[in-house]
Structure formats: C-alpha cells, structure tokens
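cache lookup: miss for this entity combination. No prior model stored, computing from scratch. Input as submitted by user K.M.:
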Amino acid sequence: VDDLDLIRRIGETVQPQGDAQSKAAARLTERIDAGAAGSPARLAGLRPAIPILVAAALLAMVGVALVSGLRPAPTGGPAQVERTATTEHSLPNVKSAYRVAVQNASGRNSVAQHFTEIVQDAGYQIRPPTSSRRSAVRSYVAYRAGMELLAREVATDLSIDRVVSADDAGVDADIAGLGVDALVVIGADRADEGSDGTRPAADGRAVIGETEISTHRQVGQPGLRCVRVTGPAFRAEPGGVTGTCTDARLVESEGLVATYQHGNGPIVLYGLLPRQARAAAVASRPLTVGGDGLFVAVDLPRGEAITVTFDGPGFRTTRTVPAR
Amino acid sequence: MPETRERYRVITDADAIRDSLEEPSAFVRVFERHHGRLLAYCRRRAGDDGEDIASEVFARAFDLRARYDLTRADAAPWLFGIATNLIASARRAERRQLRAYARLHVEPSHTFSHDVGERIDAARAVAKAADAVRRLPPRERDVLLLVAWAELSQEEVADALAVPIGTVKSRLSRARGRIRRQLGNTRALSEADLEEPWTTST
C-alpha cells in the first residue's frame, strides 16, 4: 500500500458532530451582524486615510469656529430623528455555484428528466442527464470530497435517502469527468410513483412529498430578518408560483408563519422575527420576495403589522398581517 | 430544458468575498461552500477542538476578507491556510488526536481485503502511519496532511502556507521519506513508542 494511501486512511471514519455546522453558522452570523454595523473591511480601508481625515476634521473645526465667531451651540430643541427606510435584501443564490449531474442508471428517462428539472429549479447548475456505464441497485446521491452537505440537500429535494461519497460509490471518476460536485444516480428500483414519495405528476410538475422545507437565516443588518421561502411549487415552477395567501400570522414560538395555498399544496413562509415585533400593530410594512423567489427580508419594528406582498416573475399576492 | 445555463452564472469565492465587502451577508456563500470540507479536515487533525477551529476559521476569514487576493477564484487554499495557523496553536490537541489514531484500533477501510488477517495487518499499518505522522516536524506534517487529507494540490498548499512551490515539494518529499522509513520498521507499537517524540511545548 502506498504511504499516502495509508495516511489517507488515518482517521477516515472520524465524523464531526451533527450540530457543528449550525454552531459555526450561528457564530459567523453574529460576526456578520457585527460586520454590517462596523465592517472591519471598511475600517481597514479607512485606516491609511485616518491622518488625513483627522487633519481635515481639525481644519473644518477651525473654519466653523472662525465663521461662527465661537458662539455657543444652540440648546433645548428636540432632536430630529429620521427613520431610515426599510432595506430589502435577498440572500445570494448560493446553490448556483455548485454543479450537479443526474445519471440515469435505470433506463428511466422521464424520471431523470424530472429529477434534473427539480435540482435545476432548486438553483443548482446542472449537467444534463447522462447514461450510466454501470447498474445501480437503488438511487443515491454521490458527492466529491467536501460536498456532503450539498449532496444531502439535493437528496432531500429528491426524497432520496442514500448519500455516499464518490469514492465509496465508485463513481469518483464519473464525478471528476463530469466536473460536478454531486451526482444523482437513479437506481433501477425507483418506482414510477408513490413508493418513495417522488413521482412525476400528471401535469408535468414533480411532486416531492407532502411537506415543504422551510428555513430561516438572519442577514447582516441589525433588526433585519430574512425568511427563506421554499416549497415544492417553487421548485417545480421556474419563474415563481401564482398563489393566494390563505393565512399569515405571528406565532409566539416561531415568528412569522404565512401560508399560501397553491395547486401543489400549502407553501409556508417561516421567519424568525424580533421578539418585540410580536407586540400590537399600528402600521404596515412590505414583505417582498426577493431574488429568485426563495428569500424574503423584512424589517419589522415594534408595534407594526406587516403587509405580505408576495411578488415575483409571473405572480403577485398581498396580505396584511395584523400584529398582535 | 429551458435557458438555465444562462440564468445562473457561476459565482466564485472571489465574487462572494468582493460582494461581502459591501454586503457582509454575501460571505455566507463562502461558508456554505467550504465549511463541510474544512470541518472534516480540522476535526480529523485536532479532534474535538477541530470543530471550534473550523468555526474560528470562518470568523477570522470574515474579518480578514478585505485582504483576500481577489484574483484567486477559489478561497479553499486561503481558508486551509488560516486553519493551518490555528491548528499550529492547538498542537497539543493534534498530537493527542494522532496518538489516539495510533493507540486505538483503527478501523480498516472496507476497501481493504475482507480477510481477517489482512484486515488486522491493515489496521496495524494505519496505526503505525499515524504514529509516523505524529513524529513529523510540524511544517512537514502540515504539508503532508494538506495534500493527503485536505486534498489540496501542491500549488494550493503553497498558496495556503504562503511558501514557494519548491518548499512544498521538498517538505512533502522529506515527510514521505520519514514515513516510509518508519513504516519499514514493522514491529508492533508499544506504549513507549507513543511518548512524545518532539518538544512538548505548544
């Protein structure tokens, strides 16, 4: 055995704890929040200019003193507080940098096509379905080193429960050849419909299970919260979804929960809002789907209701949510 | 399939880092792209401490992003370089982890032969390799493990460690030579073998 091979086998079974990523994400989010308030990058960029800025400030003070004749500053008036405008952000489409391929090991072109569309509509770069040189007992998502989380997310999208490293699956050469990060291999036992919760729908859309996946993430501005909007309908319909908001409410334990009814079932917007936002309401603020329709940002100060405007290419819905 | 290739442009790490200078949340993209791989590497090198180290890598990278060389599309070497510096300050944890690999029954890979005797031999060889890695000078160990565990190319390792490529090649060559010499001695490891071979200061 080659010495490098031996070294590669040292500790190869060591696995990080499951919550390590979420802890690290939370830590980075805190840092990003702090960075938005006083970005180290901006401060670092300013650093060389500090002596010049100090000199300019001194000159300005001298000038003001000369012009004003050293009069004392006026006192007693109420401070003018100008409210900053709501800023809407959409998080970047992280997935677009990843490349995924669907490999048809089952001879089922329609399934391969549907899986490709689902993964594509989820935002990943996609290689067209490829023919397999080997048989696959069942479906799995293989990943190249370091891309396990990506593979797990793709597997979730496709209701596939088997995720393996390319090395273990013996498809590392395929992954390298295709130049992708993850490879979906459709197995020979995938049923036409029903058995695994994934089936091509009659109208051409893909139905992935019954429930939607919802996550949330803070973005880097104090008081601003980002809601990630996702669901089978979003994934199945490039360009968005036409829907009707049937329910939107603030839930004490979960923040904003808004439900939209759609042909494929309800789509839930799930957001973590500031605790104070759960107070009584007097005004409204827009909540707008941003970017590719997957992310929503809302700035919800104390005591305001929100108007949920669900707006994107080909669809628009609006709903006012009274705060409690 | 509609015009999806045109719809999604490839956004490099450098793009994300440049964007993050204006909009800090753009840095999330770098985290999502690299954290899993970096976490696995740090965990493997420094045991339980590795999870904190991986987390700290991204916190530091975020703070240092203004200094990132935006001509480099892939941030992996930069991140692994930060990780290497952090691991250097946790050498004790790293040595403890390598001792554990050498002392414990290292599970042979399933790709080894199923023959029991061969599996035991394989486990012994891996344990011995772990001990040999532990005995390497830290700089050689960094290069070797960035190649073997982080799967960086030699050019990427040079980027990560900010050293010339020739230095990487020579350190790698020396490290592998030491490993091979040590593996040549096939007697079983004893507890005495597992005592600290280098200085105990961290």
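stored under new cache key. Confidence is low (pLDDT under 50) at residues 39-50, 68-94, 189-324 of chain A.
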